[in-house]
What does this fold into?
Amino acid sequence: MKFFIDTANLDQIKEAQDLGILDGVTTNPSLMAKEGITGKDNILQHYKDICELVDGDVSAEVISTDFDGMLKEGEELAALNEQIVVKVPMIKEGIKAINYFSNKGIKTNCTLVFSSGQALLAAKAGATYVSPFIGRLDDISTDGMNLIEDIRTIYDNYMFDTEILAASVRHPMHINQCALMGADVVTAPLSAITALLNHPLTTSGLEKFLADYNKGNK
Ligand code: E4P
It folds into this structure.
């Protein structure tokens, strides 16, 4: 399973990159705004800065909701760096845009996916990635993990190449469950990724090993 980090914060991206486990980055307009990145030129420069930091795919989301606007924005984003994946919302115009980008060899990430039917359409349109939002489903008392399982089954039934990119991840158990369900990629905040490191028996075990070493080497 690939690990993407879900942030536009350069320090956090660098920290995950330094761990040696990072395969890519996802951003969205809210994450960019959270870092205070506003204005088209600053936003495009920030995508370039992120691409400099990591080797893998970097999702950059279009703001337009009409077909022509998405094409113009997507082509501009894709021209920034070959690592850029054009992130397109799961709407009618978005599906048409994904199909257009797919035919042109531009990578896409179909975002705001909340049902397996939407995921089926994204795959038919040729999306590189589909982003089911598991945390936001959990927020409305619907098990987001069931959606990952259903999409896995559908994609395997028809051998779609579209990769399942589990998004809206909130905690380390989401990452574990995504791995069990066979998600191809998980994008998560740094806190959820580093939380995977922790186990109280690891902490106490290491303390004991070091204490015993120090006793014997006084
Ligand atoms: C990433 O691709 C998504 O935009 C992101 O994971 C959404 O996360 P949220 O539901 O925590 O805002």
